[in-house]
Amino acid sequence: MPKHFWKSSQLIFLEKINYFLYNESAKKNVLYLLRWENENEESVEMESKKVNVRELVILGMLSGIIVLLAYTPIGLIPLGVISASTIHIPVVVGAILLGPKKGAVLGAVMGSVSFIRALTAPGWLDQLFRNPLVSILPRIFIGIAAYYMYVYIKKLFKKDIVAYAAGSIVGSLTNTVLTLGALVIATSFSFPDKLQEAVTLVTTIITTSGIIEAIVTSIIAAPIIHALKKLRY
Predict the structure, then answer these.
(1) Is 77 helix (H, G, I), strand (E, B) or coil?
(2) Closest Cα to residue 205, out of 177, 186, 185?
(3) What's the pLDDT score for residue 233?
(4) How sure is the predictor about 11, in pLDDT bands with cuts at 50, 70 and 90?
């Protein structure tokens, strides 16, 4: 580029600096903009902290509900000859509300409760739940599966309540299939003579109470999630 272009650009730049240095009105405007930007950043930071605190409170409440359901009769809903477990419902609700990471945390809480209960239980099936790969690991995926199914269905149908129900069903089935699948694998190593019995039991549970639990989960969880989303939890 020609030299006069660079010189004229430099002169314009110096003139602008001089203007802002010695013009009171310009300085006030700059200071006002800087102050507004700082206040805006502080406001965003405060709002972010509020959201984080709120999410932690909800995470704690849902963890408490998991423990309550695990150690009281309300964790099971009698349905004739079988009962539907509701212990995983807070995991599904938390995952869809708070995201997959916190859903995984809630799943780990549920698995830890199962692990602790198995430490004092005498049955051979209970002994298998003393293995974290059976009691904890499968439960971590409940919230992850529920959240991503919710996101997928919401994009597909654009209806929140349908997405909540679909996410709830998938979360429940993830719990049933992964936990019982891990149980069968653990049985083959720890109690090979009980393998056929375990396979029969798992097949029966998946085809009966597993499906019913998924439906019950969607009926209970979807309206709760919808209400909390409306309130912006």
Answers:
(1) strand
(2) 177
(3) 53
(4) very low
| Cβ-based burial of 152 (10 A; exposed 0-12, middle 13-18, buried ≥19) | middle
Q: Which residues contact 205 (CB under 8 A, 6 or more apart)?
A: 176, 180
Cβ–Cβ under 8 Å, residues 108 and 62: no
Place of tokens 């310009």: 26
CA-CA-CA-CA dihedral for 66, 102, 97, 110, to nearest 10: -20
For 193-222, give one letter per residue: b (16+ CB within 10 A) or e: eeeeebeebbeebbeebbbbbbebbbebbb
Cβ-Cβ contacts under 8 Å for 35 (sequence gap 6 or more): none
Specify which residues 85 forms β-bridges with.
76
Q: Most distant CA pair in the chain: distance in Å? A: 93
Instruction: Specify which of 21-25, 82-86, 108-112 reaches the highest per-range mean pLDDT.
Output: 108-112
Up-side HSE of residue 221: CA atoms within 13 Å toward CB?
Answer: 36
Residue 186 has pLDDT above 80, yes or no: yes
Q: Which domains does the chain have, with CATH numbers?
A: 38-230 (1.10.1760.20)
Within 13 A of 132's CA, how many CA atoms are on the CB side? 5
What whole-number distance in Å separates Cα of residue 137 and Cα of residue 122?
Answer: 22
pLDDT value at 6 more than 50: no
